[in-house]
Specification:
The chain is of the alpha/beta class. The chain is 36% helix and 15% strand.
């Protein structure tokens, strides 16, 4: 089936007793046993819940994986993945990445004996050079957050295989609708499901999808053992959101392409980061491994004094953290998503005080353009 059809039918057929088209919300903690030593397959909802199981089956199918696990947040999902490693192990990780991931590695797992090296994973040779004798994992965001750099997933997959690394890709920005890292060599895919998969800024969730049954079983063990599971109500909201993922991604992407071209010509903007632009360094690579550039973009204004003006003036666009919902959001990475990254590192990467990030939604593109135009204009309101 085509992706759009698989998305619409996510979770359908999960209740053969009644034929309910919408997966029921099994809002329960425990399940009655038929008899001693017997089980329905469900015993306690931390371990397994029918609503969450329906979501996990849908996610595995969409990412072409062998199994999936749904978590209470994207950070809970990533934390579980890092628990596959041991003290003394080393991770090579994308340097231009979400600030929460940077915080997790530098302020949590480093105290547990897990080493890390940040590297520009859009540079395959530099990534390979960062691998040491105790490296056990390659963790990649592509496109990156917030500068939208694109890593060559197939090439990095070859590097990971040569060094016997666990290869993990964060696919939050493009989703399985546009990119399927497991088919390009990844072992695990992680998602902040709160974003495009859920799509309506009404739920916080995360997911891990595994390429093999063995990896899926290891992740499921850690999910149960550590307990950061997704509740049934939130699982149901995600299932409902997934059904419109294709429609939402197409409209958001179309809007993002239009805004990126418009911003390139604006006199107050000095640079636009968007892999859907033909002059973007990641354009050709992304076209080889994804069916579209997504709907995230970043741009740098000529003067830092413009930033508070833009954030105060936008009316259609919302000044808020997060991304991937139907509403267009504008974020200031310098003091929001990347505040925990040391200032010197932020400036080196290009996450400076003139950079703004847009998560483009499904509104009419002309309204979004008009809103940005008045927000960037010189003079009063």
């Amino acid at each position: 089936m085509h992706p759009e059809t698989r998305l619409v039918h996510a979770g359908v057929g999960q209740d053969p007793r009644t034929g309910a088209v919408s997966t029921p919300i099994y809002q329960c903690a425990t399940f009655q046993h038929p008899g001693l030593g017997q089980t329905t397959g469900y015993d306690y909802s931390r371990t397994k819940n029918p609503t969450r199981s329906a979501l996990e089956a849908a996610l595995a199918a969409l990412e072409a994986g062998a199994g999936a696990a749904a978590f209470a947040s994207g950070m809970a999902a990533l934390t579980t993945v890092l628990h596959l490693l041991r003290p003394g192990d080393h991770v090579v990780v994308t340097e231009d990445l979400y600030g929460g991931t940077h915080r997790l590695l530098t302020q949590v797992f480093n105290h547990l004996g897990l080493g890390h090296t940040f590297v520009d994973t859009s540079d395959t040779a530099a990534t390979a050079a960062a691998i040491g004798p105790n490296t056990r994992m390659l963790l990649v965001e592509t496109p990156t957050n917030p500068l939208l750099k694109v890593a060559d997933l197939r090439a990095l997959g070859e590097v990971a295989r040569q060094h016997r690394l666990l290869y993990v890709v964060d696919n939050t920005f493009l989703t399985p609708y546009l990119q399927q890292p497991l088919t390009l060599g990844a072992d695990l895919v992680v998602h902040s499901v709160s974003k495009y998969l859920a799509g309506h800024n009404d739920v916080v969730a995360g997911a891990v999808v595994a390429r093999t049954p063995e990896l899926a079983e290891r992740v499921a063990f850690l999910q149960n053992a550590t307990g950061g599971i997704l509740g049934p109500q939130d699982a149901w909201l995600v299932l409902r959101g997934i059904k419109t993922l294709g429609l939402r991604m197409r409209q958001s992407q179309e809007n993002a392409i239009a805004l990126a071209h418009w911003l390139q010509q604006h006199p107050a903007v000095t640079q636009v980061y968007f892999p859907g632009l033909a002059n973007d360094p990641g354009y050709d690579c992304l076209r080889r491994q994804a069916t579209g550039p997504g709907a995230m973009l970043a741009f740098r204004v000529r003067d830092a004094a413009l930033v508070p003006q833009v954030l105060a003036r936008v009316r259609v666009i919302l000044f808020a953290e997060s991304l991937g919902g139907v509403e267009t959001l504008i974020t200031y990475p310098w003091s929001q998503t990347h505040a925990d990254v040391p200032e010197s590192e932020r400036r080196r990467l290009g996450v400076d005080d003139r950079l703004l990030r847009l998560s483009v939604g499904i509104e009419h593109a002309a309204d979004l353009q008009a809103d940005l135009a008045q927000a960037l204009a010189e003079g009063g309101d």
